[in-house]
Write a structure and sequence with these properties.
6-stranded mixed sheet, about 950 residues
Length: about 950
């Protein structure tokens, strides 16, 4: 044995050069949820089948050093849905009560900064079966002129399902078969949504008036039960018809009650009436009483298109639509347009003048405009022309044209907008037309207001005033740069006084702002325009904001703070601080990059800040400077770290590497702290005995006397001569250790207590038992279990499960084979995998026999079990032989799983297990066996080579 380990480590050690154990990420997706099935399709994509409403659990098991970080994403259904903003180690994706829209391809991405990130995917297929929908359609056609009419009925059954459903049609309780009834056709129509089957009843007969049932099935996939729907066809069956109690468009005032009735005028079975509001849901205040929809005290939010739908699954649904309009009126504006033919901007006698009036209203075309002159109504005349809807203006604008203006036309004109007969208040605007009351506006920016400076986060006012002109229009503000929106998110902002007030100003608001006169509430002439520049000042932008800087003591340290941007660009001060205290140094050149140099000593470790200021404020570069060592990096890929000790204890081989060990002072040891439930189990110092850690080289320490099967928290911190590093933490868990095959015969008859390296699975309910005829319990259960081993010898041993009390139905016992390596041999030419033959004898006698499963457990990044053989129930009183082929993709174990049946007469036994290279033959020969056994010994060199390949394969997979 000593020779084995010497050869092993002499072969492994040279492989730790270069990057050492640093390795890129590798990943594998495993599942632990309520899967119906997990399989590989033709393009080697894993498919996870799950029933809608069950819980989806996917785990991304990662490998690589340093420990990779994991993130889940999803496509095909909702592109790149991110489930975690922060990556989590070994992240488990869990979706409770999964819906069909959550089906698609899920990706786990594992990245540790070494090489290329690993990306694995699995396709989740959500299975479901809805209740089918059955509709009836009728046609009547003339046959042979007018002698008689043929009436045909189509029963259309539609369902949404995954996988595709199977349809069964029944009349009453009798199955309808097209081949046995000339009066029916069953077919699948084209261009339908969902899956559809049609039952056609040709030339309707009296016996066709009956109950029809459409039953759909997905063949019990994922234990989804069949669904069905029944329709009674009678000679009165007819489609629905409805009529409304109101017109298609209903216009009301705010606050009114509205009653909409959708009366059913025809249809059997009696139709069901449903009200809806497109494209949103009905108002919370809406009341539906049968076919009537009641809206109390309607508001503007209640306006919209209401749909009445009557359905009885015969023919097409009957639909009626009501457009509910709630009157509203606001924002009455006016315009004064001088004679446009003369390109005039002022009012002049003898020229035309147009006054326009516009209100924002719903419905716009129902607004009534009335014009007044000095309080008297205006009527059409040769000098005054009324235009209810001016084609030269915005829709819904009324104009009053004054032709060849005279002194008698100088007056106060009023425009009144209202809804005739409505309770909505009317709106009024007055316009004074005189030689002194109308003049073009003049815009002006106050002195010093062309450029306005403000500190980031402050408030500012941009001013653009109408200093002359009558009447004075409001001012519209917009960004001068194309496609930039105002801070409010709109293209323009209106200010009645020309003052634009901005709060909490940010640097992206900096730039030119355009102010313009509005074309309304004033002269409708060429718009006046100016610009105001907003200058947002902000403190310097520095790099790095924070940096963790590690050096050796007595080493020269240089800290640099880069200035990326600054407004204003001129700096006012640069200062350095250590742990909050000012560092005295020669006056800094404000035009040079800030820099600090010093010799690192144990006394000047700490937090260094470079504070750079301008007139807008101060920014800081922070450096955490120390000789403290970097953290240890736990190694998670240690092969078989658990060893079983006496007294139900175990030991754990903890391994780690040291991040950048040359960056700081020499590391002389580590503090290790083992805790359980926040209580210290172990606290001690690991002495490296003068050996310094190397980049990428593993350091190992065995933690003993841990209790099976408890888990522990391990904390680790590096130690130097002057300081101690930060603790890093991980959880170590007990896992069943695996053994390697012994150099002996090919058949394991369990003749010695070591049972050929087989072991009990500690995660099951109970254990397999080793016994022979002489060691049997005299009080054993009768009528179950073997009398002797497979050879018939009373001294021969076998393994069996005892199903008497306290065992209950469903209890499981698992027996694990040694770990077998597939990388030590090659498969057949053209094949990447090595075939193996598994052979054994089983005994399953008794009326309560449960199930014997044989599972293949492939160890890669994670262990994945798959059932490769199964037998259930009573198989007779004799031993029976079973054999089958496997082609594992990596190191593997064979797992024998016995499941207790309904009673105590259900003992199951196995014997003479062999695992041989090559495919099974009708009679296996001893010459083909290479892996496990009892007495025949292979050459020592062959087993050393095999053992080395097992260990090395697991270390570097």
């Amino acid at each position: 044995m000593e020779l084995f380990w010497i050869l092993l480590f002499s072969s492994v050690y040279p492989l730790t050069g270069g990057q050492g154990v640093y390795a890129p990420a590798n990943a594998q997706i495993v599942h632990s949820g309520e899967a119906c099935n997990v399989k590989d399709d033709n393009i080697s994509e894993r498919i996870y089948t799950i029933k809608e409403g069950d819980t989806l659990v996917l785990q991304c098991i990662v490998k690589g050093h340093p420990r990779p970080q994991v993130r889940w994403t999803k496509t095909a259904g909702s592109a790149s849905d991110k489930f975690q903003e922060k990556p989590i180690f070994n992240e488990t994706l869990r979706i409770e009560s999964i819906k069909r829209i959550k089906g698609g391809r899920y990706y786990c991405k594992a990245d540790n900064g070494v090489g290329v990130a690993a990306i694995k995917s699995i396709r989740v297929d959500v299975q479901y079966l809805d209740v089918p929908v059955l509709t009836v359609h009728q046609t009547i056609s003339d046959v042979r002129g007018s002698y008689y009419q043929e009436k045909t009925v189509f029963l259309r059954c539609t369902v949404n399902s995954n996988p595709p459903a199977r349809f069964i049609w029944k009349r009453e309780n009798m199955l309808i078969e097209q081949s046995k009834d000339n009066g029916v056709d069953i077919y699948e129509p084209l261009y339908t949504q969902g899956e559809t089957k049609v039952l056609k009843l040709k030339n309707l007969r009296p016996r066709d008036f009956a109950n029809y049932t459409c039953q759909v099935s997905v063949r019990n996939v994922c234990n989804i039960e069949d669904k069905s729907i029944t329709f009674r066809l009678t000679n009165a069956t007819s489609p629905p018809m409805v009529r409304l109690s109101v017109n298609d468009t209903v216009v009301v005032d705010p606050g009114q009650d509205v009653l909409l009735t959708c009366e059913v005028t025809a249809g059997f079975p009696p139709p069901t009436v449903v009200w809806s509001l497109y494209p949103r849901s009905l108002p919370l205040s809406a009341q539906v009483r049968g076919p009537t929809l009641i809206l109390r005290a309607v508001t503007l939010d209640d306006a919209g298109v209401y749909n009445c739908t009557a359905v009885n699954n015969v023919g097409n649904p009957a639909r009626k639509v009501v457009n509910l309009v709630v009157r509203t009126m606001s924002n009455l504006t006016f315009q004064i347009t001088p004679d446009s033919n003369k390109d005039s901007e002022t009012i002049q006698m003898g020229r035309d003048l147009k006054l326009s009036c516009h209100v924002d209203a719903t419905p716009q075309d129902k607004v009534n405009y009335t014009w007044y002159k000095n309080g008297a109504p205006v009527f059409n005349s040769e000098s005054l022309i009324l235009l209810r809807s001016d084609p030269d203006m915005a829709p819904g604008t009324s104009s009053l044209e004054i032709v060849d203006m005279k002194f008698r036309d100088l007056a106060t004109y009023s425009c009144v907008a209202n809804f005739p007969g409505s309770r909505v208040p009317e709106l009024r605007v007055d316009v004074n037309i005189s030689q002194n009351s109308v003049s073009p506006p003049v815009l002006s920016v106050p002195p010093g207001g062309q450029v306005v400076s403000v500190r980031e986060g402050g408030n500012v006012e941009l001013v653009c005033l109408v200093v002359d002109g009558k009447p004075r229009p409001p001012i519209l503000w917009s960004r001068a740069e194309k496609d930039l929106l105002m801070p409010s998110g709109t293209a323009t902002m209106e200010t009645p006084d020309g003052r634009l007030r901005l709060k909490n100003v940010s640097r992206d608001m900096m730039g030119a702002y355009r102010c313009q006169t509005a074309p309304y509430n004033g002269l409708n002439i060429k718009r006046r325009e100016l610009q105001v520049q907003l200058n947002v000042q902000f403190p310097p932008i520095l790099d790095p904001v924070f940096q963790d800087a590690r050096w050796r003591n007595s080493q020269m340290v240089t800290l640099r703070c880069n200035i990326l941007r600054s407004n204003p660009p001129r700096l006012t001060d640069i200062r350095w601080f250590r742990n909050g205290d000012f560092v005295r140094m020669p006056t800094a050149d404000l035009k040079e990059m800030p820099e600090l140099k010093f010799k690192l000593e144990p006394t000047n470790n700490g937090s260094y800040e470079c504070r750079v200021s301008n007139n807008a404020g101060t920014s800081t570069c922070t450096f955490n400077v120390s000789a403290q060592p970097y953290n240890a990096e736990f190694y998670f890929d240690t092969p078989n770290p658990v060893r079983i000790l006496k007294g139900n204890n175990y030991s754990y081989n903890l391994q780690w590497t040291q991040k950048d060990p040359e960056a700081t002072d020499r590391i002389i040891g580590y503090w290790i702290n083992v805790r359980k439930n926040k209580q210290n189990v172990l606290w001690k110092q690991i002495d490296l005995k003068g050996k310094e850690p190397e980049q990428g080289v593993l350091i190992s320490h065995t933690i003993s006397d841990l209790k099976i099967p408890l888990s522990y928290e391990v904390r680790l911190s590096p130690i130097t001569t002057y300081s101690t590093g930060d603790f890093v933490s991980r959880i170590i868990q007990y896992s069943e250790p695996y053994t390697y095959p012994r150099p002996s015969d090919h058949v394991c008859g369990f003749e010695n207590e070591r049972i050929c390296g087989f072991s009990q699975d500690r995660s099951d309910i109970f254990d397999w038992t080793r016994q022979n005829h002489l060691t049997r319990n005299p009080k054993r259960s009768a009528n179950t279990g073997p009398e002797t081993d497979r050879s018939g010898s009373k001294e021969g041993y076998y393994m069996y499960i005892e199903t008497s009390s306290p065992r209950v139905q469903g209890d499981k016992a698992r027996l694990l084979s040694p770990l077998f390596n597939v990388s030590s041999v090659r498969g057949p030419k053209g094949s990447g995998r090595v075939p193996y033959c598994v052979s054994f004898y089983y005994h399953m006698k008794g009326k309560h026999i449960g199930t014997l499963n044989v599972l293949l457990r492939v160890r890669s990044i994670a262990s994945v079990d798959s059932v490769v053989w199964m037998k259930s129930g009573h198989q007779g009183p004799e031993w029976r032989k079973a054999f089958f082929d496997i082609s594992p993709s990596g190191p593997f174990q064979i797992v024998f799983e016995g499941i207790r049946g309904a009673g105590f007469e259900g003992d199951i036994a196995i014997d003479d297990v062999s695992i041989t290279i090559g495919r099974c033959k009708q009679e296996n020969t001893v010459a083909s066996a290479v892996l496990i056994g009892g007495s025949h010994t292979l050459p020592v060199a062959s087993w050393l080579t095999f053992g080395l390949s097992c260990i090395v394969s697991l270390l570097y997979r």
